């Protein structure tokens, strides 16, 4: 029954590929297949345990692993045997039916094609993607590196550099009975800097709002205590509580229940004034990295928008404006809203593709 054995191996290799597409880059087929071979490939629990032991190297990966395993092998109970005819095969973007069953995930023939497909997706305009590509894009957000920006804290910690710690140095001298010893040093410990997302969900931002919310969710998961997320439409809505859900789809669904003004109009100046009055001056924006995600179309008073961005700039450590049109050929920030705000913006960046959105995260981390 060599063909049956080969089908089993192909299914396991496909599962590893699905994990890698979902963001578990450390997953490789060799150890997993060897571990399953020592157990019972028909028993769902054996396959599940073998995969957890060989494919995950971080506890944070387990929710992703569980979700992909349930989707790949079905919802049968643990310990039940799997019916090979009911296994669902999901293929990463760029792989056809023949590719999905052609050996290990490290095959030289597959790697260039897969890398090329992902590279093309990374640089395509989010608004131009079809439904399948949007699903692939949504999975790719989970793999983006996200680090909170750091600031120098007030507390110090022992260090090999920095200023001399007189107290510790004196105690060390006493412990040595007065004999000369090393000069012990200390430096101020870094602390996460707050990040505030202000995301425009008006009608003109409809093709991009989902991607910006997923980006904010990725940022929040990296530093939940120092990240705040708001949407701006006809009203300002704080959606931070909804983003505590680890699964991005569930988090965005919960956020959608909080936001009453999807795809409507927006008055950015009024929304920033509402943010400043209720949140900004009370400490949320003080010393923070503030990321405004908007195309800059202002239906209200452009002068008010300029004044509010200037006030926000005085409170914040850095103001970054991510505009989905910034990276398109021929774009100039001449619209009344963005033109009024630009003098108080530290950096105007593109935000129309996966690659440019990843740069927004990196820019925030370095701020």
From TrEMBL:
Biased region (Basic residues) positions are 149-158
Q: Which InterPro entries does UniProt cross-reference here?
A: UCP010256, Uncharacterised_CoxE, vWFA_dom_sf
Which stretches does the entry tag as region Disordered? 141-187
Bias category Basic and acidic residues: which stretches?
Answer: 168-178
One Pfam family this chain carries?
VWA_CoxE
Which Gene3D superfamilies did the record assign?
von Willebrand factor, type A domain
Q: What is this protein called?
A: VWA domain-containing protein
The organism named in the record is: Aeromicrobium camelliae
Which taxonomic lineage is given here? Bacteria, Bacillati, Actinomycetota, Actinomycetes, Propionibacteriales
């Amino acid at each position: 029954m060599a063909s049956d054995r080969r089908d089993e191996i192909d299914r396991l290799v496909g599962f590893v590929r699905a994990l890698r597409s979902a963001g578990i880059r450390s997953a490789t087929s060799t150890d997993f297949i060897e571990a399953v071979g020592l157990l019972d490939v028909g028993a769902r629990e054996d396959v599940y345990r073998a995969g957890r032991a060989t494919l995950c190297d971080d506890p944070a990966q387990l929710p992703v692993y569980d979700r992909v395993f349930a989707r790949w092998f079905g919802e049968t109970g643990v310990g039940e045997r799997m019916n090979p005819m009911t296994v669902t095969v999901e293929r990463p973007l760029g792989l056809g039916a023949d590719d999905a069953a052609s050996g290990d995930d490290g095959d030289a023939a597959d790697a260039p094609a897969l890398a090329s497909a992902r590279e093309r997706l990374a640089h395509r305009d989010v608004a131009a993607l079809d439904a399948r590509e949007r699903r692939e894009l949504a999975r790719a957000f989970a793999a983006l590196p996200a680090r909170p920006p750091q600031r120098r804290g007030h507390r110090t910690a022992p260090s090999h550099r920095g200023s001399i710690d007189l107290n510790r140095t004196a105690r060390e001298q006493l412990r040595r009975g007065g004999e000369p010893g090393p000069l012990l040093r200390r430096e101020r410990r870094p602390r996460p800097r707050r990040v505030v997302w202000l995301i425009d969900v008006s009608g003109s931002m409809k093709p991009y709002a989902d991607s910006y919310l997923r980006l904010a969710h990725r940022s929040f998961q990296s530093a939940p205590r120092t990240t705040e997320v708001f949407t701006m439409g006809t009203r300002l809505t704080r959606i931070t509580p909804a983003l505590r859900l680890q699964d991005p789809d569930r988090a965005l669904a919960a956020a959608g229940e909080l936001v009453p003004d999807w795809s409507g109009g927006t008055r950015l100046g009024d929304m920033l004034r509402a943010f400043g009055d209720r949140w900004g001056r009370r400490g949320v924006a003080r010393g923070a990295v503030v990321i405004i995600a908007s195309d800059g179309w202002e239906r209200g008073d452009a002068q008010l928008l300029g004044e509010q961005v200037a006030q926000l700039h005085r409170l914040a450590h850095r103001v970054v404006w991510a505009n989905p049109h910034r990276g398109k050929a021929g774009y100039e920030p001449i619209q009344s809203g963005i033109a009024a705000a630009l003098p108080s913006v530290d950096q105007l960046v593109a935000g129309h593709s996966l690659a440019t959105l990843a740069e927004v995260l990196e820019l925030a981390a370095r701020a």
